[in-house]
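User: Hi! I have a protein structure encoded as tokens and I'd like to know what sequence might fold into it. I'm fairly new to this, so please keep things simple.
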């Protein structure tokens, strides 16, 4: 709806939109195509609508056809085109109309991978020319990769705006939090509380890269349980499994558990650079086949990057530079000799 308002297809119900420059929209599959006309004829019609003269279209039509890779079908009626062919032709016309502003809806999700790559390369070319590109997508990878600034809309209202990685992170976090953490298991052992502690053994949910942290869980067994396994997993905000371990892997003999107890996992150097993370904690049988208590996403914590470093992981780096002036001095001597009378 917003893109249609920008292009002038719809009038905003209130407020106004100011557009400076020529717009080339790629909004809906097959939008602007006449089904009974050929691909070639549709190129002329669409390009004319986008503001090109017939002379300009004649100069660019070969490039449009080559980019779309529809040379064998360009004189076929577009009603026989597949959805991917529609996208190829529509995108080719849009980018070769030399717009100041390119509007792209989620239509690029339809094309095959090779054409998607070529299309995104073209978008990068537009960026290098300081063109304005407005991309509407639910693909977080595309949003992070191609956008300098993101705006998050929910039910027509602006709920987030800023740097791509921050807006993407908040969006994914909101979807994760909507999926409530849950528990399952036989409850032969019940994990009654889980805390994340800092280096001073105080509750903490915000850390810096390289910090020390402790996962502390208090549990209770209803009956004697022989050699249970206690373990945890860490996932990032996209659900990627970052790390996991347990008492068995760490060669800890838990013995016979009966009543209350405490288990702690000390994380001596948090290696993540930035973002929100989730801890899942579990108690299982010694062979791992029976789950006594599984707490999915029971704790959320945040890594805050205090530096300008980028990436996923924290790697302590020392940088040094040595520079020799010998070459420069030699060059100076040669120049002085050359200009000496």
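Assistant: Happy to help. Inverse folding works backwards from shape to sequence: for each of the 341 positions I chose a residue that suits the local structure. Here it is:
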């Amino acid at each position: 709806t917003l893109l249609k308002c920008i292009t002038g297809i719809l009038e905003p119900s209130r407020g106004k939109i100011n557009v400076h420059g020529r717009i080339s929209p790629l909004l809906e599959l097959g939008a602007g195509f006449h089904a009974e006309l050929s691909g070639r004829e549709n190129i002329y019609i669409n390009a004319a609508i986008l503001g090109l003269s017939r002379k300009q279209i004649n100069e660019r039509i070969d490039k449009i056809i080559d980019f779309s890779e529809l040379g064998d079908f360009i004189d076929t009626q577009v009603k026989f085109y597949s959805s991917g062919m529609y996208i190829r032709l529509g995108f080719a016309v849009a980018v070769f109309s030399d717009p100041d502003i390119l509007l792209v809806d989620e239509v690029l999700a339809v094309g095959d991978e090779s054409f998607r790559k070529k299309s995104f390369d073209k978008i990068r070319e537009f960026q290098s020319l300081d063109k304005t590109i407005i991309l509407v997508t639910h693909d977080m990878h595309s949003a992070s990769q191609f956008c300098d600034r993101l705006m998050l809309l929910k039910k027509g209202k602006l709920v987030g705006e800023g740097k791509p990685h921050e807006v993407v992170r908040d969006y994914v976090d909101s979807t994760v939090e909507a999926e409530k953490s849950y528990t399952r298991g036989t409850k032969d052992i019940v994990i009654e509380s889980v805390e994340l502690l800092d280096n001073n053994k105080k509750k903490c949910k915000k850390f810096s890269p390289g910090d020390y942290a402790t996962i502390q869980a208090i549990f209770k067994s209803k009956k004697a349980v022989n050699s249970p396994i206690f373990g945890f997993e860490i996932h990032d905000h996209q659900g990627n499994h970052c790390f996991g371990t347990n008492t068995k892997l760490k060669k800890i003999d838990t013995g016979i558990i009966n009543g209350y107890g405490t288990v702690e996992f000390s994380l001596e150097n948090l290696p993540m650079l930035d973002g929100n993370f989730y801890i899942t904690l579990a108690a299982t049988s010694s062979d791992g086949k029976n789950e006594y208590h599984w707490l999915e996403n029971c704790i959320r914590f945040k890594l805050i990057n205090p530096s300008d470093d980028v990436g996923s992981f924290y790697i302590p780096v020392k940088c040094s530079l040595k520079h020799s002036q010998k070459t420069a001095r030699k060059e100076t001597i040669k120049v002085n000799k050359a200009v000496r009378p």
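A useful reference point when you look it over: The domain at 2-157 is CATH 3.40.50.300 (Rossmann fold). Feel free to ask if any position seems puzzling.
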